[in-house]
Amino acid sequence: MPERPPLPVKPAAPERRCILTGRHGARDGLIRLAISPDGDVLPDVLARAPGRGAWIGVTQVELDQAIAKGKLKGALARAFKGAPMTIPADLGARIEAALRRALTDRLGVELRSGAVLMGTEKIAAAARAGTVKLLAHASDAGGDGAGKLAQAWRVGQDAEGTGMKGMILPLDRAALSVALGRDNVVHLALINAAAAARVSGLLARLNHFLGCVPTPDNEPPDDTSGANPIGAGVDDMIDTKGE
Fold this sequence. Notes:
Distance between the termini: 53 Å
Largest sheet: 4 strands, mixed
Strand content: 5-15%
């Protein structure tokens, strides 16, 4: 019998180092900062800007504290080798907006690819059939509708008796409706595993930056955030040695 070829080895996810905490984490879980041609430090959440970048894995509150205390300025000076730069006072708000835009843009892409279902009846039928890979609800969704869809999902996943509820998005129905170009989008489901992983990754990064704690069935994959441990703030984790 001929010897079977070895299975391909999945490459390890690239890691980056948070300039504020010194901790390493998956690149897709951290946020890249870049310097614009005008010298402004700006978010590069898709990591596409040319040139040198710096990575952070802290929450918005921790980032605002680091800016106020001058710690981000010092960390960026080391990361960018003393290049002239200006840190916008609203950098945290700009990062949040960029992360939200990345999430809504991704949802639009997945919709156009046919991976997104909307409408209670369609989602319920797919959930009971076991084809829903990710169930999500707007932040202002009613508990009754979300609960019924979650029950159908648990049936389809053979997970009755568990606490699976689906993800609560940090987007209300108005934001979801604009992102998906539909009226009154309250619930959505992804029926493709790869699409669900892409959306989950972006959602985990946004939730972490906002300081949101995911519910048990919404937990992102291990160490996707690359963040400091719960309870440890920037002051506890600050790296004073530079890169």
